[in-house]
Design a protein that fits this description.
The chain has helices at 2-15, 24-50, 67-79, 88-92, 102-108, 118-121, 124-136, 167-188; strands at 56-61, 82-85, 111-116, 140-144, 160-162. It has 192 residues and is of the alpha/beta class. α3 (67-79) links the parallel β1 (56-61) and β2 (82-85).
Length: 192
């Protein structure tokens, strides 16, 4: 349809100077041109609205005891056009961590967000994920719930943000810090 609009819009002015300019054919061509241009504009507008801008991708490492917090965080992040891994719904529906293709999800992630709780401090899974992101030299943000007695040695080199008992304040803080990290990345890459 776009091709027809271009051809007709180029040929129409050239042919409209002839004696038959007022004929039925020229009126039809004129109507087709206008219709084609409108269809093209609408197609571009619909495509522009349907394309989801991606701000970045985040791998969230946590213990299953924090799944409710992670679900709410994931919804907020996705509203802000972040892609989150691993797929929480797969875990809730009974998939085991070892059955997920974590290496692919790790490689697609721009950063790691670790939620430390008493249970996750003792987790080999968290240790594995942190080491994988460190090897890839990707940003790691760590948030600790108040019930932690001691931070694991492999995490002591990172800044750890404390989470309070106020879930909404925690969600807000995590979102702000992630937005700041990705804003800094876009500035460094001159994408702003």
């Amino acid at each position: 349809m776009a091709v027809v609009a271009v051809i007709v819009s180029v040929l129409y002015p050239l042919l409209s100077y002839s004696n038959n300019a007022g004929s039925f054919i020229w009126k039809v061509l004129s109507a087709l041109t206008v219709l084609s241009i409108i269809v093209c504009i609408l197609s571009v507008a619909i495509y522009g609205l349907s394309v989801k801008r991606k701000n970045g991708s985040i791998f969230i490492a946590y213990d299953f005891s924090e799944v409710n917090f992670v679900q709410e965080l994931k919804v907020l992040l996705e509203k802000r056009h972040y892609v989150c891994y691993p797929d929480i719904s797969a875990l809730i529906n009974g998939s085991k961590i070892k059955d997920l293709d974590l290496s692919d999800q790790i490689n697609r992630s721009d950063m790691l967000l670790v939620l430390l709780s008493k249970e996750s401090c003792e987790s080999n899974y968290i240790s594995f994920i942190v080491k994988a992101f460190k090897k890839l030299d990707r940003p790691i943000q760590i948030y600790a719930f108040k019930d932690i007695e001691e931070i694991p040695t492999y995490l002591k080199q990172y800044m750890i943000f404390p989470l309070t008992r106020d879930k909404n304040a925690n969600l807000s803080m995590v979102i702000r810090l992630i937005n700041g990290l990705f804003l800094g990345k876009r500035i460094r890459e001159n994408k702003i």
